[in-house]
Amino acid sequence: MLNQYFERMVDVVLSNRGVLDKFIGDAIMALFGVPFNGERDADDAVRVANGMFRALSLLNAQRVAGGVDAIGIGVGISTGVVVVGNIGSPKRMEYTVIGDPVNLALRLEGVTKTYGSKVLISEATRLELKEQHLLREIDLLRVKGKHEPVAIYEAMDHFTDETFPNLQRAVVQFNEGIRCYRGQRWNDAIACFQEVLSLNPDDRPSKVFVERAEIFRQTPPSPDWDGVWVMTEK
Fold it and tell me: Where are the extended beta strands (E) located within 3-111?
């Protein structure tokens, strides 16, 4: 299963100027902008993430037709300054990167399960994008081990009418829900997210924010609430 999966995913990475760093169990670590920076490294990374889900859709169709379970994945993308080069011991070195952006990408991959989003990118990645991508802001997040919050966005170009009905309308309504949520207008926020769910009942991020807004409506946050959600797990 992993060999079939890796074959398709690596093809997507390498066809979009990505560098395959390593396999970590069933995960893939890919680099962009190494060894030399490019103007569209962030775009390449987001394009790869969307391409991975298109390739996975074809693979899963074959798997289901063959009577085996579909594969589910999540992708985290972060941009920033890292240490890059041959790292290890004199007996074994490998070309890789280390630094906070690497750790953040790992955290974002992990929280795709929390939000039910497929591809999560950091604010730094969004600011580096040169091309048009369909994004929606998902949350202000403080990950474990960090004090400064980071805005995270979902990349959505891989969706189709079948996998996400009424996509454009839902994104507009979701964004309005986020504005109401940050403004502590709980009733308006719930109405917006429920409208998204009427357009696509399977939209997990909307379900998450309906639950949060209902809790805050019953028990309002402190006056200094900044809208940041704190992740207590890696």
Answer: 19-24, 27-31, 75-77, 83-89, 92-98
Instruction: Count CB neighbours of 126 within 10 A.
Output: 19
Tally of CB atoms within 10 A around 53: 20
What is the bridge-based pairing of β-strands 135-142 and 150-155?
antiparallel
Structure tokens belonging to residue 4: 């079939």
pLDDT along the chain (234 residues), means of 10: 97 96 96 93 98 98 96 97 94 94 95 96 97 96 81 97 96 97 97 98 97 96 89 67
CA distance 35 to 33: 6
In Å, what is the CA distance from 176 to each residue of 86, 170, 182, 189, 191? Answer: 46, 10, 10, 8, 10
Instruction: Please report, in angstroms and rounded to a whole number, the separation of the first and last CA atoms in the chain.
Output: 27
Give the single-character DSSP code of 189: H
